[in-house]
Amino acid sequence: MSTIKVNGKDQTLASEISISELLVQNNVAQPDMVSIQVNGKFINKDAYASTIVNHGDEVDFLYFMGGGQGN
Amino acid sequence: MDFTEEQIQRYSRHILLSDVGVEGQEKISNGKVLIIGAGGLGAPIALYLAAAGVGTIGIIDGDVVDLSNLQRQVIHFTPDVDKPKVISAKEKINLINPDVKVITYQQLFTAENAFDIIKDYDFIVDGTDNFPVKFLINDACVLAKKPFSHGGILRFEGQTLTYVPGATCYRCLFHSPPPPNAVPTCSQAGVLGAIAGMLGTIQAAEVLKYLTGVGDLLTNRLLTFNAKTMDFRTIKSTPTETCPVCGNHPTVTTLVDYEQATCELKR
Fold first, then answer.
1. FRET label pair with B26: which of A16, B73, B83, B97, CA 20 to 30 Å apart?
2. Checking DSSP bridges between strand B56-60 and strand B32-36, what pairing results, if any?
3. Would the CB atoms of B40 and A67 count as touching at under 8 Å?
């Protein structure tokens, strides 16, 4: 078991998982609209499957936000 | 710059701030700021920068005011419907503060005109609603070494990041535009009007901090908030070595206009 932070909140993981699995576990419906940082470092999309989150890691899901102007 | 009695009175609440003072107000009055987009974010940004006495405000937007804009774009009033947004914005800016020189660009911000437009400004503010232009603003400012404020809002949420040369840029965090078909359609999206004011005023405060040199800018951290919970977070970041525009081996060396997701439900 390990504890990580996702967007600042504690999450307990039953086993070692990858970023790809973490996205599924957190019900992220549109992974295309999310950018991911682990411990303040950007993770490339093609490394999601191979990047394992470890105990104590701080993971941030950053969402693409447009908006502002618009008709 | 010598302020008149009237100007000293107008800016007295800035001048009273020990961090700002007459000297800081002079920096604001000498500042040249470009606002890209005269919409939800551009409106509060322009209003507060005008009130603050920013000497030159450039404002670029190719649209005319639509009735559906008035729910959040507080610089435009009901009689302004169908008027070019830059004209409507300029009128309000000068009603608030005739000291401000307003330069309007009634056109889109594109790869072709970007460098030429930003070159005359000290600071650029992203008040746009779409990813192609957000990436274009980032790339143009990084390549031209211009500081800028990124802002985005969606539904009940907002995010903002301030860039200065050498700091984390928008691409360090978001790499490349999302696929157009993944972007929420206009019917799914929407935004609570006041969110635009919340985020836009944060961006305006960043501009005034930059011009006066007061405090710590939102560099190397992304501020996000969700108005449903009113939780605010700043997410620390570092420049990404593999960033396509500011990384060690940049692949973005010229400006491009990315494909724009089309919005079927325009009104």
1. B73
2. parallel
3. yes
Q: Is 0.90 surpassed by the pTM of this model?
A: yes
B235 CB neighbours in chain A (<8 A) are 37, 40, 60, 62
Contacts of B38 in chain A (CB under 8 A): 69
B101-105 and B56-60 as β-strands: parallel, antiparallel, unpaired?
Answer: parallel
- Is A33–B182 a contact, with Cβ atoms under 8 angstroms apart? yes
Q: What is the mean pLDDT of residues A50-69?
A: 88
| Chain B residue at shortest CA distance from A67 | B129
Can you list the positions of beta strands (E) in A1-71?
2-6, 9-13, 34-38, 41-43, 58-63
* Structure-token match 């309007």, residue found: B104
Instruction: Return the amino acid letter for B211.
Output: L
Report the SS3 class of residue A61.
Answer: strand
Q: Are B198 and B45 in contact (CB under 8 A)?
A: no
Q: How many residues does chain B have?
A: 267
